[in-house]
Design brief:
Length: 531
């Protein structure tokens, strides 16, 4: 419903109350409704799922239409990110939010900072989703509120042309609400636990859930050692649990992103159940590190597999975990991805140890032989040393091409000594075009950085602390923060407005008319930033 048709309907509603609602302004109600477009998290989930589905189709038609996101650990961070995107690019198209389980564990747990091992309260995940969307909806209300104030100013000045322009902008306002891809880790328990958490996340607004194939009670960060995967049937039960949650809640376009950690996971807690040769369980077990044994030499407590008439003993560690064969990670990743797509997944996530396009593409090529439209979500992780990785890639490429690399020490390529050199510049250009290049070559539909705002918060705080508590004193804040905010048009320089003070004043006037005691008068110090 448009603003104008809403206004007409509310006018009729008030008139039907025989004067008892005459103290209510139809235009004020219409404004409040426009500023609160989404009435629930499920409204958001349905709306944003549609966005992702359209974006996925656009990517299939042209891989230059890839999408991006940054991980946000607080609603304010998400809000400022989307305000910035609208300011610089004029649209939020193909820009999403990512909710990182790592950042929830490190920053939002009641236990305090925790490692990424699913030890944090699982309820903190839907709570953060709700918080993200609360701040994005407030950004809508703030932006529209400023437009409404401008409409009032234009009307008071008798400027009908400007009023019409502003009303058109209101009718065509693009919301700050965008899809969030939310990390459900390994499901926080069995399939029922996964379903219950998925419901809460969807009810909070999540249209896309990312789930990984690690053991819930042994879950590790994807860039750390000690990862333990589960057989496919265990994982696929959780994938189905997520789909059931979407369907139960009426989010029929909900997105499931299945992540495989098999590239870096050399262990499994279970031997898969196999009913027929070549089934998923048999394929999973075929990668176990086994030795052929004679029944006469079998030991007490041995687990023994029968394969092709041979008796095999899988290598079992003191932890009671079983070990996969070295070098089998890529094959297992491909198998995981195909199985996921054939059992209801929409997008894939392959966790790699480095950002290397051809490594990713090699696996995607094999997956696409079976599922031609397979697409990835890819973690442009801060756990990678991007500078060192790409300088080494260029060094190796130059070496293979017979170019002279005698001026470079491959083990020291991170050094500032190589900044501005031909090798360093080529590496930086490869980093700059990595997302576009890998979207085209390696099937990456969505690029995200999991933990960027964790690092930016630390860096900016370090810079301010160094200056403010040092010789610069107050100039450290003014020059390093406020002056930049003013000159670069950062919305929160008017922090009272950003926190909702002007919105509150509007509501006071709606409710009390001329009797309203408002905060935004001539003595409000925020007026110093009007210029």
């Amino acid at each position: 419903m448009t603003f104008q048709t809403d206004l007409t309907q509310i006018d009729q509603l008030i008139a039907a109350r025989n004067g008892t609602w005459d103290g209510i302004s139809a235009e004020s109600v219409a404004r409040m409704r426009a500023q609160n477009r989404f009435r629930s998290g499920l409204d958001i989930a349905r709306y944003t799922a549609g966005i992702m589905r359209r974006d996925m189709a656009a990517y299939d038609a042209d891989p230059s239409n890839y999408t991006q996101s940054l991980g946000c650990w607080h609603g304010f961070i998400a809000q400022q990110k989307m305000i910035s995107i609208k300011k610089h690019f004029g649209t939020t198209d193909r820009r999403y939010l990512y909710l990182s389980g790592w950042m929830v564990a490190a920053l939002r747990s009641e236990f305090g900072p925790l490692p990424d091992q699913s030890m944090h309260e699982k309820t903190s995940v839907p709570a953060l989703i709700e918080e993200l969307y609360t701040f994005l909806r407030q950004a809508d209300a703030r932006e529209l509120g400023m437009l409404f104030r401008d409409v009032d100013t234009a009307r008071a000045a008798g400027n009908a042309i400007e009023e019409k322009r502003l009303l058109n902008a209101i009718e065509n306002h693009q919301t700050h609400v965008v899809p969030v891809i939310a990390d459900i880790d390994a499901g926080f328990g069995n399939a029922e636990a996964t379903y219950l958490l998925a419901r809460k996340m969807i009810e909070a607004g999540a249209c896309a859930l990312q789930i990984e194939n690690q053991v819930s009670d042994e879950k590790q960060c994807g860039h750390q050692d000690g990862k333990v995967t589960v057989p496919h049937e265990d994982f696929l039960a959780k994938v189905r649990a997520c789909r059931y949650a979407f369907l139960e809640l009426g989010v029929e376009d909900g997105i499931i992103v299945t992540r495989t950690d098999s590239l870096g996971a050399g262990l499994t807690k279970q031997i898969a159940v196999s009913k027929t040769p070549g089934d998923l369980g048999d394929q999973y077990n075929s990668y176990l590190d086994c030795e052929e044994i004679d029944p006469a030499t079998a030991q007490n407590g041995d687990v023994i597999l029968n394969r092709d008439g041979k008796l095999l003993r899988p290598k079992r560690l003191p932890s009671n975990l079983f070990q996969f064969r070295a070098g089998s990670g890529e094959d297992r990743c491909v198998m995981d991805c195909i199985a996921s797509l054939q059992n209801g997944a929409d997008l894939l996530w392959i966790e790699t140890e480095k950002p290397h396009i051809e490594q990713i593409a090699g696996m995607v090529d094999r997956i696409r032989e079976v599922v031609p439209n397979a697409k990835l979500v890819y973690n442009n992780s801060p756990s990678f040393n991007w500078t060192l990785n790409f300088r080494q890639q260029v060094f190796d490429a130059w070496t293979d091409a017979g170019r002279d690399v005698s001026a470079y020490d491959r083990t020291r390529l991170m050094s500032v000594d190589y900044d501005g050199t031909p090798l360093g510049d080529e590496a930086d250009e490869r980093i700059r075009t990595f997302q576009a290049d890998s979207a085209k070559r390696a099937g990456i539909f969505h690029h995200l950085i999991t933990l960027p705002t964790y690092h930016t918060a630390a860096l900016s705080t370090d810079n301010l602390a160094k200056e403010y508590f040092g010789d610069a004193g107050m100039l450290g804040y003014v020059k390093g923060v406020q002056r930049k905010e003013i000159r670069e048009g950062i919305a929160c320089v008017k922090h009272q407005n950003m926190s909702g003070s002007d919105l509150g004043d509007d509501h006071k006037e709606y409710f009390a008319g001329e009797a309203a005691l408002k905060a935004g008068g001539v003595h409000n110090t925020m007026n110093q930033f009007a210029a």
